[in-house]
Amino acid sequence: MILVSACLAGICCKYNGGNNGIPLIKELVKQGKAILLCPEQLGGLPTPRLPAEIKGGSARDVLQGKASVVREDGADVTENFIRGAREVLKFCQEMGIRRAILKSKSPSCGKGLVYDGTFTGKLVEGNGVTAQLLIDDGIEVMTEEEFKKIC
Ligand code: SF4
């Protein structure tokens, strides 16, 4: 069983109420090979919601209390992001899930590149908070872009 970001499976859980649905991912879910979760919703955030970015450090810094996740209006949503990430990790551990396909560039799900905290569209090296927690647990994480290349 593979974990997938819910928005990649067509669920409208994106910050703007939309989704990032990809037919290949939807097919995995349909065939019972993948299960979908949205860490931001699991962390208690509503949909739609204002966009958020990691600020002042990396996702690992966020998890260690040294950096934060802030909304576009300046509100601190770090606790929601950490709570959502922990819920996803707990679910993966309980279900024995060791692989995940997560949405690129998201402050929760991104792997390799995330926005830099200035809300200017600039990307920096790094992971989203949930992706980081899963990677640190040894779960194999790939983005939907990486997945498309191997299919
Ligand atoms: S938190 Fe992840 S699953 Fe939820 S909308 Fe953002 S990228 Fe998609």
- Overall pLDDT level: 98
Uncertain stretches: none
Count of discrete alpha- or pi-helical segments spanning 4 or more residues: 6
Radius of gyration: 14 Å
- What is the molecular shape? globular
Number of strands: 8
Category from helices, strands and their pairing? alpha/beta
Domain count, please report it: 1
End-to-end distance, in Å?
A: 17 Å
Helicity range: 25-40%
Major β-sheet, in short? 4 strands, parallel
Q: Write the H/E string, N to C.
A: EHEHEHEHEEEHEH
Portion of residues in beta strands equals 15-25%
Pfam families: 2-thiour_desulf
Q: Can you describe this structure?
A:
It is built from six helices and eight strands. It is of the alpha/beta class and 151 residues long. The protein has one domain (2-150). The strands form three sheets. The chain has a four-stranded parallel β-sheet, with helices on both faces. The protein has a two-stranded antiparallel sheet with strand order 3-4. The longest helix has 18 residues, at 78-95. The protein is globular and about 40 Å long. Bound molecules: iron/sulfur cluster. Residues 5-7, 13-14, 38-40, 103, 106, 108-109 line the site of iron/sulfur cluster.
